[in-house]
Amino acid sequence: MDPLLASDMLRIAHLFAVVLAMGAAFYADWRMFNGVQKPVSARDLTAFDDLHHFVLGSMALVWVTGIALIWLRTGFVLADFSPKLFAKLLTVTLLSVNAVVIGKLALPLMRDQAGSVPLHFPIAQKLTLGAVAAMSTASWLLALSLGASKVLAVSGWDVLAPVLSGTYLSALTVAFAAALGSQMLVPPAISSVDPFCRLKRV
What's the whole-model pTM score? Predict the structure, then answer.
C-alpha cells in the first residue's frame, strides 16, 4: 500500500476515534451536570456505565491508530519526536489514567449514592467527581487544541508547558470552587439521601 494512502487512512481512523471518545465523554459530563438536582437513578447508572465502556473502546482505538501514525512519521526515533507530539502523548496518557479512575472510583461512588441528589453529595465525593470531570474536560480541550493549532504545532516547551499546566490548573480550580460553593449553598438538613428514592432502590 502507498505510504501516503496508509497515513491518510490511519489519520481518518484516528480522528474518528477521537471524535467518538470526546463526544461520549462530553455527553456524560453534560448528563451529570444536567442532573445535579435530580436523584441518581438506575437508568442514570446504566447510561454512565455504557458511556464509560464506549469511551474505553474508543480510547483503545485512539492509542492503536496514534501509535501507528507515530511509527509511520518517526519510526519511533525519539530524536524525531516534536514537543507537540510529547504533549499529545502526555495528554492522551492522562485521559487514559482518568478513564481508569472513573471506572475504579467515580462510578462506584455514583452507585453507592444511588437515590441521592448529586447536589447533596458529601463534599469529598463532590470534589472527587469534580476532579475527574475537570481532568477529562481539560484533556479533551488540550487534545483538540494540539491537533488543530498551527501555533502549538511549532511551539517548544516554553509555550506548551504553561498551556498544559495552566489548562489543568484552571479546570481543577473551577471544579473545586463549584463543589465548595454548592456545599455552602445547600442546607445541611437536606444534604441526605432521598428516603423515597432509597425505598424504591430497595
Answer: 0.86
